[in-house]
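Milestone M4 deliverable, item 7.
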Amino acid sequence: MAQPSLAHAESIIEQLDPRVIVPHHYYIWDVIQRQSTLLPADSWVDSRVGAERIAGPRKIYRIAEFDKLERVVHFFGDQVDFDKDSWRQGGG
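Output delivered:
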């Protein structure tokens, strides 16, 4: 299976024309195994004009505001909405 590429991601964005793009591939430094081929999404997020880094594990969207969005990037980084310690103790 071929590795996903930035060109592939851009193609998907072009086809779907989403209002909001939430880059995630479950690469979380202190959760994912280090031998994973996935790299952090930070450089891609940095390349997107107006990308917003969300400070917590959730964001609330309101329809009136959401309808005005066009391909904005909302990036949660390492903020995940689950208990990392419990996840680790359960063996992942």
